[in-house]
Amino acid sequence: xxxxxxxxxxxxxxxxxxxxxALYSQNPRNPQVFAYNVKxxxxxGLKGGVLLSTVxxxxxxxxxxxxxxxxxxxxxxxxxxxxxxxxxxLNYESKGGKFTNHDMKxxxxxxxxxxxxxxxxxRDPEIYIYGGGYAAYLFMANTKGTYExxxxxxxxxxxxxxxxxxxLNQFDAGYMFGVGIQGRYNRSIDLFLDFRYTRGFxxxxxxxxxxxxxxNYDTFWPEQAVDKPKNKSIMLTTGIIIYLTPR
Length: 247
Known about the structure:
The chain is mainly beta. The protein has two helices and nine strands, in the order ααβββββββββ.
């Protein structure tokens, strides 16, 4: 086959392949398009999961026995780049901790607003990391459970369910970071699994009450050191992400 015939053959092959390439380029399942075009669509989502929390800086609270509770909320994102987005959430989170020597819990109920930057390492599924901060409002708090007191030779079990919100700061703030994986379910929906660590830097105690838990722990732990109690938690959540522009 001469040079001219080869050129004609290649020309016709390119003509035949062009429509297929065009269709491939427009295919939402094409990873290249998926990563560099569709991902620019803003998203909203729903999430929920398990939260393990404690309070640092106070020996009344057991640092190793984590309080297990729930986290639920909504999320949204705006993409600065197909692999980089700014995300926000509005969550209900139940934080707090377990007391060291008694069967009691400190329950702190927050409305939390995390804001963070997320970076994807891969396209589909996305493996990602993120980091940022959060602000939170304490709308309910209590000390609840049972404890023992000694009267003579007898151990008496007492119950407690006390409102401690007036004794604590209503606002909390801190930093957070995490990792996760997100995969495509259909043209409009992704599913994700997320692991997160958070730590507060606001002193929970507002210094207005001698016994901030409405429980006179000095009777039981006279040598106890009290520093600045702060929130600490880890979270495992899952949920759905909805693209406002279907892919």
